[in-house]
Amino acid sequence: KPLLVMDNFVFKLNKTTNTKKYYRSENPECTMTLHTDINDVLIGTKGDHSHLPEPEQIEIRKLKHVIKERAKNETTPVPKIYDEETARFCLTSLAIAIVPSQREISTEIFVLLFLKRIIFKDSSLNKARRLQTPAIPDSQIFDIPDTYTKTLKGDPFLCVDKFI
């Protein structure tokens, strides 16, 4: 579901009508709600927060999203992506203290999906990358995708690509 961040509090979309969107605090124990127009311009709020804001969790959520997108679109090893992004993100001291390792992110996603009764044997980062990989051909006649005809430096990998 779409999320909205306001004053370092995270809200998830609860309901949409033709003219309004209704958001509820992501914390299940909090009764705070927001009403926006279709373009997410605040119309009003209802209730009070029963918890403190967690800006570090928002930073970590953004970091996880960037890592997952890079893992989907690049062939760089996931641990290297993780290291590059955690160094680039300029996290606060508290966020650095609570940011999960690459292995912990995978375990966290595994536990979440297991609780939803989906058996998941790999990290979500590797799964996202695997979904982008072309299927294994079921015959000997197929076109080799351009990404597999060149080396990492851009030199031709194949000398000949034709059926004999």
Order of helices and strands: EEEEEHHHHH
Strand order of the largest sheet: 1-2-3-4-5
The end-to-end span amounts to 52 Å
Which radius of gyration do the C-alpha atoms yield? Answer: 22 Å
Overall geometry: elongated
Percent helix range: 25-40%
Give the low-pLDDT segments: 116-121
Q: How many extended strands?
A: 5
Beta-strand residue fraction: 15-25%
Quick check: average pLDDT? Answer: 78
Structural class: alpha+beta
Whole-number total of structural domains: 2
What profile does the largest beta sheet have? 5 strands, antiparallel
**Number of helices, counting only DSSP H or I runs of 4 residues or more:** 5
Structural write-up:
By secondary structure, the chain is α+β, with helices and mostly antiparallel strands. The chain folds into 2 domains: 3-46; 55-131, no CATH class. It contains 5 helices and 5 strands; from the N terminus they run βββββααααα. It has a 5-stranded antiparallel β-sheet with strand order 1-2-3-4-5, with no helix packed on it. β1 (3-6) and β2 (9-16) form a beta hairpin. α1 packs across α2 and α1 (55-73) packs parallel to α5. The longest helix has 19 residues, at 55-73. Mean pLDDT is 78; it is low at 116-121.
Topology:
Elements: E1 3-6, E2 9-16, E3 20-25, E4 33-37, E5 42-46, H1 55-73, H2 78-88, H3 93-98, H4 102-115, H5 124-132
Antiparallel strand pairs: 1-2, 2-3, 3-4, 4-5
